[in-house]
Amino acid sequence: MTAVIETNDLGKQYGRKWALRDCTLSIPEGKVVGLVGPNGAGKTTLLSLAVGLLTPTCGSITVLAGRPGDGPAQLEKVGFVAQDTPAYAGLSVGKHLLMGGYLNANWDQELAERRIDQLGLDLRQKAGSLSGGQRAQLALTMAIAKQPELLLLDEPVASLDPLARREFLQGLMEIVASHGVSVVLSSHLIADLERVCDFLVLLVASQVKLAGEITALLATHHRLSGPRRDPRSLPSSQEVIEESHTDKQSTFLVRTDQPILDPAWTVRPVTLDELVLAYMGQARNPSPGRRSALGVVS
Amino acid sequence: MIEFQLDTASGIATYLQLVQQVRQALQLGILEPGDQLPTAQQVVAKLAINPNTVLKAYRDLEREGLVRPRPGQGTFIVGTLPRSDPAVQERFLASMTAWLRKAHTAGLGPDDIEAIYRTAVRNSFAEGAA
Description:
The complex is a heterodimer.
Chain A: E1 3-14, E2 17-28, E3 32-36, H1 43-51, E4 58-63, H2 71-77, E5 78-81, H3 93-103, H4 109-118, H5 132-145, E6 150-154, H6 162-179, E7 182-186, H7 190-196, E8 199-204, E9 207-213, H8 214-219, E10 221-227, E11 239-245, E12 249-255, E13 266-269, H9 272-284
Parallel strand pairs in A: 3-7, 3-8, 5-6, 6-7
Antiparallel strand pairs in A: 1-2, 1-4, 8-9, 10-12, 10-13, 11-12
Helix pairs in contact in A: 3-4, 4-5, 5-6
Chain B: H1 14-27, E1 36-37, H2 40-47, H3 51-63, E2 67-70, E3 74-77, H4 86-105, H5 110-129
Antiparallel strand pairs in B: 1-3, 2-3
Helix pairs in contact in B: 1-3, 2-3
């Protein structure tokens, strides 16, 4: 399968601080990718590098087989909605579409007008007077009417109320179904991502902690609980991501491709939420699971 | 046409929920051969889920011989599911009741029984999936 975004040791440095480093990723075509991570983890930096708004300090990034921002042909292929779904407050909805038509060679005016009509927006209304949800929908309409192959969305639903968020994601999924566009969207709302995404990239402290198909990630992580146990006694095929102990009981979140055979364990599947939190927590307390961890945690 | 619902708290994979709802509708006679399923686009526009999830569910149903895609038209019901025989249901209810009585006599409480039931279901699902 071809990759829509491919990075190799990609890094971006501001002064002495790395916003993103050692980033090696391959995102396959046709996916809806959820980009998650704490604030300041490098999500916006990665998206801006993919659009071409930033240039890498080191390493390389290839987007749809081209260099980000490299000429009109490359820009045509990528749609981008920046954080807070910006629009020009003084321009009407109709003027936004007009501008889109002037600036984009493959602009589909009919698609844009149809979406605006479905959303119940007035072409004469100024963007500044739209609600947050309407502005987000306008930004999405602009990004999709240019008919990109890849759509990058930086926290598009962060500031929306639950209804507007659902409507935005419904619209986005409809576009994915009808246009087959690949999508990368960053968000903190794991429950939303679980519905709409099939691929996850987790950034923590400027580095990629986890990347892969969500079904595969969920199938290879398990929650084990049972009698108190030293993590060193677990089989080497089980990587401990998270552990907690009481005086009698141990609970582990492990990653393994192998079946869990030990009858002492009660095995539970993990949710995407648990998985993301476990990896974020692991980054915060970098006590590797293999080390003696018999200090009682809770 | 049926309308899919999603129970996000169930812990059941989304595509499986869609599969189960079609199977259920067949068992209840709500869906019959010739009926059309909503298109992937209609489903995602309502539920805000990934289109691949819908396609995966429809592929599973196709593999079971329950639906068939008609190019350019949509996905249609072609198979039927036997409605479960009331006599069979009666028989299993009786054996379940006998089992529960034995468990109770052996000193197992409702929580123990619930745990046993869940483990048994999980184990038999795991076998089925393997």
